[in-house]
Amino acid sequence: MRARGATSLLAASALVLASCGGGGSGSGGQTPTPNATATATPTPTPGSPFVAPAQEALTTAEVGQIIAQAVAEAQARGLPSFIAVTDRVGNVLGVFRMNGARDTAVVSRKRIGADLPAGQIFGLQGAEVPAQLPAIAKAVTGAYLSSSGNAFTSRTASQIVQEHFPPAPTTVGLESGPLFGVQFSQLPCSDLSARFGDGMIGPKRSPLGLAADPGGIPLYKNGVVVGGIGVMGDGDYGFDANILDVENDAEEAIAIAGAQGFMAPDDIRANRIFVDGTSLRFTDVPTNLGGTGSSFAAINGTAGNLFAVPGYYTGAGLVAGTAYGTSASGLRAATATDFALPGAFILDDGSGNARYPIRGGTDAASVAQPLTQAEVRAIMEETFAVLSRSRAQIRRPLDSTMQASISVVDTHGEILGIVRSSDGPIFGIDVSLQKARTATFFSNPVAAQQLLDAGGAVATYVQRVRDFLGDPNALTGSHAFADRSGGNLSRPYFPDGEVGMPPGPLSVADTATFSPFMVGLQTDLVGDEIFEHVFFTAGLNADTPRGCTAVPVSPSGLPRVANGIQIFPGSVPIYRNGVLVGGIGVSGDGIDQDDMVSFLGLHNAGLRLNTGIGNAPKAIRADTIEVRTGGTTTRLRYVNCPFAPFLDDPAQNVCEGL
């Protein structure tokens, strides 16, 4: 197991760096299950319901134009900045440091209670990081959260990851954001995310995960997302805690100016998309400002210079983007050999081969009857078929088909297959895998021991869970935890959002210390690896190895949660005749949709296969657990499914009955 001393090392290195369920709506503890009208194997619409986006990409001239436009706005506002541009799959196309730009930024000290005192580090809070890293993270966020049907910014991300949704002083008491925890995805230690220069292609990592700090804007050509721009100039890497006011954020203005000519179509911007009746936020700054400036040749070497970032960008010149959908992007249309159903995309190894071909479980050392290749294929096909019929939540136009990614893993966390619809947002690839692994891990008989073996702060969560649930054997496989269930236990208030209630046992121990940069176990599992990577980009040590988290490696050689855990809904564990054999995760288009697709797809696969494969037995699902807090009893949730979810069927409560 890797030593975990990076948090203290970060404090000692600050001067060196300076020189260089329960998210979503739904009813209490009801366990949704498919009704009779939804249990037959679904038949996809003939052909594909998905239209693959055109293969567009930024040229080097366009990357230069974007940077030059941003520089002009930064000069007009007197805020020298770092400006980063990426393509849709996270390749860094250029990083520009303006003369006089701050070398570092501090991760925001804001939290629910009193702000973190200066000089202290808690989770990621208070850490001083090279300023180019937040710029890259913001660009990745704009690119990864967006698609041809939705355009989200880092301000949108801020709105959907906080303890109340929408975040504002007047919304205290509401549930947490629908993507609570997504900021800890696309991690630099992930085994899934590719690394610059390592020979791997496909979705790249982000140095700090996804960003909630305004200043990250997606870039579009002809209605197709081709990348993102991120700006860091004010030295504060934070979030917007009050959605009700309108900020004149200079970093956001600089990014918008850079994006002129490459802005998202009006109709798909976040402000046109509603979640639980609330409009999302695209920007606070007008979206038609700036856009003029000198050529890149005129500013390069005078207003600033291209800036090398170890692990991301050489600084030798601007780079053209890679067109999403080509083999070179690492994501392409599946062939009939790869995956039988039409409209599917898979990850490619760059040579035309599936990076994750469908296979059987690798965990024969731990499971008497591992998943077979045929079973994994059937689970993925049935899940994709449900996805192909489902109504989107966060896509325009209304009544579009849902778009998302699907991952299946075995009990060791090994990837058995990943498939996605053609235009699902890129972030969902990594997150669907996090979800599948998380549900499998917390349902696994070895979960408690693995957390105890991790030691330090991570080990303390075992006793907290056992005390909270009143179960001395919790986390030993006696209950099946979907990601919605674990998410219930990860909120700073339990029940979710109810102020005055205690924190969940997987959240921070003291609610007053919560912030999006320190959420509890999710942060403690990966914080040292993030810091280790920050030091690498500053030239202080080698890069963090592949395989996130403090838990020991499995018999397969990596931690069972090798890209970190996820704590918002969209996954269920897979059982064979009551025995855990794996997990499935879905991410990309609304948390209730993600829940339904994973749960119903697995159920339908069980009917098709008749091999004992299916959802967890009712008696062990987490929604049988009742928790007594504040004089009330609350039941954990398992999954929630949306009302009237299908485009081809008027069925309403499709997840009731089993």
UniProtKB/TrEMBL annotation:
Domain of life: Bacteria
Record key words, sorted: Signal
Annotated PROSITE patterns: PROKAR_LIPOPROTEIN
Xref: Pfam families: HbpS-like (PF03928)
InterPro entries (alphabetical): GlcG_carb_metab_protein (IPR052517), PduO/GlcC-like (IPR005624), PduO/GlcC-like_sf (IPR038084)
Extent of the signal sequence: 1-18
Residue ranges, annotated region (Disordered): 22-48
Gene3D superfamilies for this protein: Haem-degrading domain (3.30.450.150)
Sequence ranges of Low complexity compositional bias: 31-42
Name of this protein: Heme-binding protein
Lineage: Bacteria, Pseudomonadati, Pseudomonadota, Alphaproteobacteria, Sphingomonadales
